[in-house]
Each structure stands twice: as structure tokens, then as C-alpha cells.
Amino acid sequence: MTAADPTKPVAPKGARWWREIAWRHAVGIVMIVICVVPLLYVLSASLRPNGSLTGSTDLFTTIDFSNYTGLWGRGYGHWMVNSLVICTVTAVGTVLMGAAAAYAFSRFRFRGRRSTLTGLLLVQMFPQMLAVVAIFLLLISLKDVFPILGLNSTLGLICVYLGGALGVNTFLMYGFFNTVPKELDEAARIDGATHGQIFWTIIMPLVLPILVVVGLLSFISTYGEFIIAKTVLQSNDKFTLAVGLYQWASDERNAPWGLFAAGAVLAAIPVVVLFLILQKYIVSGLTAGSVKG
Amino acid sequence: MRRSILSALVVGAASLALAACSSGSGDDSGDGGASSTASSAPQLSGTLTVWVDETRIDSFKPLAKEYQEKTGVTVKLVQKASGDIRADFVKQVPTGQGPDVIIGAHDWTGQFVTNGVVQPIQLGDKKSDFEPVSVSAFTYDGSVYGLPYATENIALVRNNKLASDTPDTFDDLVTQGQGVVAKDSTVKYPVLIQQGAEGDAYHLYPLQTSFGAPVFKQNTDGSYTNEIAMGGDNGHKFAEYLQKLGKEKVLNVDIDGQKAHDAFIKGQSPYMVTGPWYVNDFKKANMDVTVLPVPSAGGEKSLPFVGVQGAFISAKTQNAILANDFVVNFLGSEAVQTELYKSGGRSPALTSALDKVDDPILKQFAAAAGTAPMPSIPEMDSVWQFWGKTEVQIISGKASDPDKAWDTMVSNIQKAIDG
Amino acid sequence: MTEQQVAERPTAPVSGDGGSRRSPRRLRGDDSSHARRPGSGFWVKLALVAIVDALGVYGILTAAGVHSWWIVASLALGLVIVNWAYFSRRAVPAKYLVPGLLFLLVYQLFTMGYTAYVAFTNYGDGHNSTKSDAISAISAQNQERVEGSAAYPVTVVLDGGELGFAVVQDGQAEVGTADQPLQPLDGATVEGGKVTAAPGVEILQFAQIAQRSDEVTQLVVQVSDDPADGTLRTQDGTTAYVFSPVLKYDASTDTFTDAKTGETYTPSDHGNFVSADGDVLQPGWRVGVGFENFTALFQDSRVSSLFVQVTLWTFAFAFLSVATTFFLGLFLAMVFNDPRVRGRKIYRSLLILPYAFPAFLSALVWKGMLNTSYGFVNKVLLHGASIDWLGDPWLAKLSVLGVNLWLGFPYMFLICTGALQSIPGDVMESAKLDGAGPFRVFRSITLPLLMVSVAPLLIASFAFNFNNFTLIYMLTGGGPDVVGAPLQIGSTDLLISMVYSVAFESGAARYGLASAVSILIFIAVGLISWLGFRRTRSLEEL
């Protein structure tokens, strides 16, 4: 869609609007209801002092914020900060390393390129049933050498997550990099740009949408990950949100479901806010398209 | 040249930084602080790492402080999720990274012992100070592996607002409950026994034992053999009874613990079979409750399992002396057992502390206790699963022939135990 | 270091884009003439590599200090690679690949390697640690307190520099060490049944005892010259008891002997001490067992009866999960890719909500909502129907797919939204102008172009769902169970959760078996994916 496209921002009127646009709103509304109902259920549980996740079917019969105020005495603030730090660093690291790798795969032809690509994909398919045991052992040995990368360390956990930086995301970016015309690089190279300059100043801005998507995906999956995190992190003040919430939920008899629900509702906010902020970059690919024209 | 100087500088700086980290991050609990204060008042120093799950950690926080003030030893409490604490302990002790002490339930003993991750505890002459069932619960192959601090068992809890006297048999109790349901529109269930999709053999066990079908044969000293005792005619009778309760909708698979708890608090049932863990909630809801033994369904006395909580010492602890002192001398003292009873709401395992319990409800629970601890053999996990799921299938009517389902279960359990 | 390599070399032939081809202007000594010359970038690179080198050298020194030769070797290799990649002119692709690959090597490949190693051992409950751990555990567990013996208040002493116990027996103070059975200790002061002072020996205070915890608890003092009388040991440094070992380890023959029956236990190939008539001592230790784990699953008659059913469902689940989430995600992405739709921002934000909640929480919520008697779906949405969503074998399968769709479509929606941006709008416009209908445009233009970037993700998503243990475990636990099945395997169990049942829930954890089956599953999924991936090659050349 070029910038000169005259139809772009203008919405059609009358019958044509009904035919081309209205159904999209209908789809949107239906989907939003489907998405939101289970979450309203959680929200409702979080507003009941002794809420449970399986019991009541009456939504919002009581509105009480004691679960929300109760969160702060339990280390929830720490967890939130930890989660944000860990996920942000992991997301940025994943984007940088993944983009670099995608650039290499997309722009250079080298021996072992195809097999490395395939290998990356295959590595992701390994069932991680024993991952926790292996990572635990690895971190014990690392702790003797680099204490900061050992158990119960935020940085240690980030490094474990960065181990998965190349992988599916690289493919997503690789595909997107391929759509950026190589003539652009050529032109820049003739102008004397180094490969580094081409990467940072020409390619990266053009692939911004996919970088943001990958960053977001990485952020979200790290945000919800608790299996590795609960092995690595051992003290309450180091927990991430997912680990903390998991611990609450794992109490078979007296699980504080009200607190849990409140914690989960608040936990979803950063992700939604992040998405709201980043959304315009994702869609700004439309402008990137104009370069291609 | 330039680079080598530069990197030498960086190496130096980085090494310093790392060295600083290594001394700082080794123990987050402020190990350094403890040793510096140690010189002033108490003589001891050092750190004991204690694993405890989220259900018990609040009771142990003040104790850790108390022990530190008393002895100078830092007790570092590590909170583990109750779903993971046991498996993590088994995995981590051999690496040398496990804790010195782990707080847990006695039915972990078998797995811990067969993995060699705990060491025997010498109670010596103190042994007789504890309730016998609590010590035999932690006994495995003749040695004691844990120091008991609390016992718990389920019983019948009655909402005195809805029923004031309780019949002697379970059938009569159901009839009475159904009468209350018919009379009072807020009451929906004659009696609540929690189940859930995975089943809950633990909460049905009092009924099962009343048919004379205990899970394993017991030796005279209370320890279990590996011989399954719940098969045969008595088992069949119980299975048929389950089917009957399922058909009458007295038992409902959809009622899990949470649901039963909520319904009872809302006054939807005169009776609930449950343990002391919900008592605080009942009190908070200003309920007037009485705790009674579960009436017999099959003619014999109903005997709920006794669960015992206690402390194990890791086989690989570097601080055996301190760990022993903390576990045997400190946790085993009357003052601490009383404190744990007050914060945890369970009967103390130490007889002298138990005798001083003044809470009527806890006393009633203790009176309804059986003499059989939950079995602690390592295969118990799979026993529970077959057991619970078969009961669910009988209750829900998926297994139409209860006798056959029960026999299949017994043979499946046997196979699982034989490996 | 870098400068010597500036001399131009022809790079490997490249297919058209010539990534590492350099302009001939770039020669030694040309530093200042162009603004683009390695100014800031070079220094940043140098600083970063220097830091990495510093950390690496530090790591090598420390690792050597603690004798972690594996780490020393890996770090050295890593440093060589890093320095080669960043200071060699030839390794341009490596410059971009090395950081990610290093992390991958350390954290992911280690996991794989470790799993492969475990697959050939009997690691699991009962075979949890090393042989020496097993020996000390067996020894510790098989000490019996001599019946009727007293508890001795003990004083830990240093007798001529050697750790010993001082006790009071029949009013007589006695002292003994590891090599010296108890013998009278003359001139000792006894208070309250305990030795408090004695000439020639140093009495340790509790704090000192605690510091030598290991030595004290391992100290064994013979009660008399006759070993059969038993030995004194203490666990708490204040009270000692007389023990006699039930099982005695003999290091020279590497056997345990039962003190009463004389039965000997010798180490077996499977990491246990076993007696002649087959009695096994627990715990055992970890040993290699060859391919046993790989065949065990197939020899287990309980498994073979259910294997086909579970495998079919696993494939169906993985395929349907990918298909449903992808098409719903793509559909929604296209619906809201039309710039004329107002409020797209809000729609998009709300659509990713299911993804923003931690997945295990959502699974729990859905489990509650699908409850037959009390669930929101039956009670409110269906006005009191009693549909057994998670209890009926087919409905449970449907529910699992439905919940997975709910959980998974935002991911596909996000990806497709991003990927759609890469499709040049003018291509579509011109197709429309040529009279192609919307479906035609989708089939012939949008989908193929999209597939270029998305196809590998679909393969990865297939593999992910193939092993989607968490969802099944949280939502149905694999249930509803097959009535009377000899394993706890149900209608929604995937291969991976079946392995879990076999390896972990049938009594004892068997990591060796779990690893072996993980590897078999990996080979199966990997092969399918590899074939699929080869097919996408043709797409990619578009």
C-alpha cells in the first residue's frame, strides 16, 4: 500500500460500509466476548473476599478490594518488579540476538547455513522433560565459577532464557528479513556502508514490526514461564509473578484463590499496556511497505 | 598492545566485581551479618537451611527467629511449592545443594529412605514422650527418620444449626441429612465428602475401614506390610456402597475440596467430612460446629488415616550437629510444639503438649483419630491414583460393575507395587 | 591484532548479495578519511569483546581453581570462537550468529546432551546418586541401637589432637577415639553425669563441636576391645548411644554383610547391593544400563495396549491445534488489517488478552468453568445443562482442543498481524484491479506470501503441541481415564503425558526411562518436522 494510495484512510459510506466493514466489527465483538468472559470470571473472583475459581457462577455479586490490598504484604511488589526486569532484558536480548542471526541467514550465504537453520528448528522440538534437572546441575557448576549466574540469581535465569533466543523467533524474523529487497543493501554497500551499518541503520528500522512482535512474544512467554523459574529462583523476594502465583495455586487445601485471582488480574496489566504501546510499531509495517514500492 | 592493557584492566575490574558478587550472593540471608554479631552474645554461628512449603512457612518464621536469638545460628527458610518440595528434595540432596532440614509429611518417608536422602534420627529416650502413632508414622524399616510435631486426621464436622444429634450409622446420617435438605431450602446436601475428578480416597477412607477393608495389612507395631488388604468381600461391599451413594447423589464427583468448603460455610449441608485445616475458616464464619467420629457404614469402627507432620534431616547435611539440635532439641521441645499447635491449628505430637491443648474442636478431632498412619511406602503415589480414580468411576457410574472395577484396581495396584 | 588481517581476501563465493565483499577503498591506514570508518562501532566492539575476554579469563582461572575442567575447556573454546569471529574479516556471518549460538550451546544443547546421557542410565528413585552415597546411606540406615543400652551424656574432647568421646560409665570416666576403644580417664571431673574437665584432654565447647559437625557425627568409638559390644556415636554432640551395625560394609571386598545372618550383599550390574537369593538393599546408585530404557517401554504390556490410541490422538491433537489456532488467528489478523476499520487498536488489544494471562491460570479457570454441575458454561451459558465436558471421552477431546484454541489463537494473531505487514499492499491492489475476488486474493497471494515467513512457525507449533504436556496436565490430567486401564492413562493423554505416567506416577520416578522416551519422541517429531521443513524450502524460494 503506497503512501499515495487514495483509498487508504477513507472509510466507505452507506451500503458499502455495511458490506465491507460492519461484519468486521461483528467478528471483533464476538471474539472479544469469547476472550473476555473467562477473564471477567477471574476478575469477579478477585473482588470476592473468599473467592474461588470453581465455585460461584454469579459474577460481581460483591465488590471488595481486600484481595488487592492483601497482595502487597506477600511480596507481590517484588515479584512484579522481578518479572518486568527479567522479561524486558530477555525480550531485548532475544530480539537482538535473533535479529542478528536472521540477518546472517538472510543476507549471507555460508557453508552450513541451511543445516544450521534446520538445526535451530529441530532443537526447539526436544521434549524438555528433563530440562529442569539438567539446568539445575548446570547452574550448580556455573555457580562455582560465576556466582552471579548460579542458582537463585536473576541474571542466571535470564541467561537460561536467552539460551532459547535463537529458535522459532529467528525463523519469524528470517522470513521477514527476506522480504526486504536486497537492492537496498547493495545500494548502501556501493555507498561504502559496512555490513554493520547496513544491519543497524537500514535493515533494523525496516523490520521494526517483526522485531516488536518477537519482543512481545518473548516477553509474554517469559512472563508466564514458571517451571524453570521455580527451579532457579529459591527465595521469595527473587520470585517472578508466575512462580509466586503458582505457589499460591499449589496449596491443595487452603489456596488463596481470591488473592491468586487478584494477582493474576494485575499481572495481565503490564502485558496489555505493553501491547498498547507497541501496537503502533507493529502496524507501522505499512509505512515500511512504501519503501518497497 | 593497547588492547592487552585494556583487557588487563577490564579483567582486573571484572574479577573484583565478580569476587564481590561471590562473597555477597553466596547466602542471601546475611550470613556475614550473623557471624559478626555472633561474637557478642551467643556462641554459635553458621546457617541452617530449612525447606518449608507455603502452607507451613508462616508458622516457622517466628521459630526461625527464636532459634537464632537463642543460639546465634541463622535459620534460612526457603519456601518451596508444596507440589514440588518433595521431588526437588530427592533431586537436589545428591548434588549437595539441598537443605539441611526439610519440613514435611510423614508419608514422604519411604521415598526419602529408598533414595538415601535422609538420615535416621535418634530420639533415644525421648521416643516415649511422643504420641506412639506419630513416631511409628516416621518409622521405616525399624529406624525413625523424622521428628513429629503435629498430627491431623479427618472427622465428621457437624453444623449445629442444622443438626443437633448424630446417629450411629452412616445410613441413618444420610437419611437425617436428606430430611434437613427436604425441610430447608438453603440446604442442598445431606453430607459433604469432597471428591474431584481425580477422586479422593483419603476422605472416603473412614467409610472404607468401617467395612473392614484397610489398604494394607498392618504389623502388630503399626507398620505396614506390602500386602493389599482392601480386596475381597469387604472391599466389594464398600465398592457397592459407593455405587449406592453415587446413585443417590450423596456423593458427587464434581464437589471438590474448595466447593465442599464453600457449601458448608454457606450452610448448605449439616455435615462435612474434613480435617482441622478448615477449622479457622469455620470459626471466621461464626459457625457453631461439633467434631465427631465418622459414623460406621459397614458395621466396624471407622478409622481415618492419621497424617503426621515433622522434620527430616538431609543425609548430606554439612551441619549435622546443628540440624540435630534444631530438629530434636528445639522442635521437639514442649514450648515449640505448643507454639506450632497455636499457629498451625493441628494437634501436637508431643504428649505433654497435647495434654495441654485446650481447643475443644482440636480435642474432638484427636478423639476421632484412628491408630493407623497413612502408609508411607514409595509406591503410595500410584496407589492413591488408582484408588481415587476407581472410586470416582464407581461413584459417577462409569464403572457399572463395582466389584469388577474394585478387583481390577486391586490387581493394578499390585502390578504397580511389584514394578 | 585486527590490523594484520586487513589485507583483502576474496571471500567465499556468494549468491548475489556478497555480504562480505569489501570495497577496494578500504585499505590499511585509511582510518581518518571516511566518517564511516570504524569509529565508535569499532570501539564498542572492542570494549565488548574485551569484557567477554575478561570474564572468560576470570572464569577459566576460577574454574581451574575448583577443578571444573569441563568449564575450563568450554570457556577456552568459547573465547577462541568469539575472538576469531570478531577479529577475523572472513567470519562475517559468524559475527551475527555467535552470541545466540553460544547461549544456545550452553543452555539448550547441554540439556539435550544431559538427557541423552541419562537415557542410558538407571537414574531415578532408588538410583539417585553415586555409589559412595549409597554405601554411606545404607550404612547409616542400618545401625541398630543396642537393646537395653543407656544413653550417654557425652563430652567431645581432643585427646592428643584426636577427636574423641568422654563418657561416664558405672561412675567411671572413660575416653576413647576412633582408633582407641573406651579406656579409663583418670583425674576427670564429673558433673551431672558428664565429664567437664580432665587432665591431658581438651574439652570442646558446643560451638566448636558444631564447627566440626562432620567429624563428630562420623566419629565411631568402640565401647570395648570387642567390636561386638557395639560402638558409641552421637548425632547432636551431647548424647551418645551404643550402636551395632546391622549391615557392615567391607571396602576391600566391596560387600555388605549382615551382622546377624552373615548374608553378604554384592554390587550388581544394575547399581544395587544384592544378596545371593536376590534381596536388594536400598538405595542403589546410578549406573549405565545400555539400551534397556529404550526397550522397556515396548516390553511393558501395560503400555502396548494403549499405545496406538494415544499416538493417534497425539497426532490429531497437534495437527488440529495448529490448524485451528492458525486459521482463526490469520482470519482475525486479516479482518483487522483493514485500515478502514475504526477501533482496531482496541480490538487488537483485547484479542491478545487470553495470551496475557499466565497459561496455567487460564487452564485452571477453564477447568472450573467446564465443571459439569457447577461450571459457568453449563450453568449460565447453557441454562443448567449437565454436559460432562471433561468426563466424556469425546467431549473431553473437544474441550481440550477448544481451550487450546482459546489459549493459542492470540499467538497466531500476533504473528500474522506482523507478517501481513510484509506483504506489499500494491500486489494485492493490482490483483484486485485485475478482478480477483477476496478469496482468490487470499488463496493466490496472501497465503503463499505469508507462508514464507510463517510455515516454519507452524511446524514448530506442531512440535510444541505434540509435547503440550502442561495444558493436558492442568486441564484434564489426561482424563477421563480409560476404565480399568492398568496405567493412569486417559482419553486426552498425549504421548508425552503417557511417558510421564509411566516414568513418574507408577510408583517411583524413572528419569532414565523418561529420557529415553523423550529421545524417541524427539526423533519422531524431528523427522516429521524435518520433512515438513524441506517442503517449505520450495515456498521460500518464491
UniProtKB/TrEMBL annotation, chain A:
Gene Ontology CC annotations of this record: plasma membrane
ABC transmembrane type-1 domain sequence ranges: 80-278
UniProt main location, coarse: membrane
Location in or out of the cell: Cell membrane
Gene Ontology terms for molecular function: ABC-type maltose transporter activity
Keyword terms: Cell membrane, Membrane, Sugar transport, Transmembrane, Transmembrane helix, Transport
Ranges annotated as spanning the membrane: 21-43, 79-105, 117-142, 154-177, 198-220, 257-278
GO biological processes: maltodextrin transmembrane transport
Source organism superkingdom: Bacteria
Topology with respect to the bilayer: Multi-pass membrane protein
Pfam families recorded: BPD_transp_1
Family per similarity comment: Belongs to the binding-protein-dependent transport system permease family. MalFG subfamily.
PANTHER family in UniProt: MALTOSE TRANSPORT SYSTEM PERMEASE-RELATED, MALTOSE_MALTODEXTRIN TRANSPORT SYSTEM PERMEASE PROTEIN MALG
Name of this protein: Carbohydrate ABC transporter membrane protein 2 (CUT1 family)
TrEMBL record, chain B:
CDD domains in the record: PBP2_Maltose_binding_like
Alphabetical GO biological process terms: maltodextrin transmembrane transport; maltose transport
InterPro entries: SBP (IPR006059)
Signal peptide as annotated in the record: 1-19
Top-level lineage group: Bacteria
GO cellular component term, pick one: ATP-binding cassette (ABC) transporter complex, substrate-binding subunit-containing
One Pfam family linked to the record: SBP_bac_8
Keywords annotated in UniProt: Signal, Transport
Any one GO MF annotation of this record: maltose binding
Family membership noted in the UniProt record: Belongs to the bacterial solute-binding protein 1 family.
Protein name: Carbohydrate ABC transporter substrate-binding protein (CUT1 family)
Organismal lineage: Bacteria, Bacillati, Actinomycetota, Actinomycetes, Micrococcales
From TrEMBL, chain C:
Keyword Transmembrane helix assigned: yes
Assigned protein family: Belongs to the binding-protein-dependent transport system permease family. MalFG subfamily.
Protein name: Maltose/maltodextrin transport system permease protein
SUPFAM superfamilies: MalF N-terminal region-like, MetI-like
Gene Ontology CC terms: maltose transport complex
Species annotation: Luteimicrobium subarcticum
Compartment(s): Cell membrane
Residue ranges of the TM segments: 42-61, 67-87, 96-120, 312-334, 346-366, 398-420, 441-464, 511-533
Function (record text): Part of the ABC transporter complex MalEFGK involved in maltose/maltodextrin import. Probably responsible for the translocation of the substrate across the membrane.
GO MF: ABC-type maltose transporter activity
Keywords from the named record: Cell membrane, Membrane, Sugar transport, Transmembrane, Transmembrane helix, Transport
Key word Transferase present: no
Disordered as annotated region, ranges: 1-36
Domain spans labelled ABC transmembrane type-1: 311-532
Superkingdom per UniProt: Bacteria
Primary location recorded for the protein, binned into one broad class: membrane
PANTHER family (alphabetical): MALTOSE/MALTODEXTRIN TRANSPORT SYSTEM PERMEASE PROTEIN MALF, MALTOSE_MALTODEXTRIN TRANSPORT SYSTEM PERMEASE PROTEIN MALF
Pfam families per record: BPD_transp_1, TM_PBP2_N
GO biological process per UniProt: maltodextrin transmembrane transport
Membrane topology listed for this record: Multi-pass membrane protein
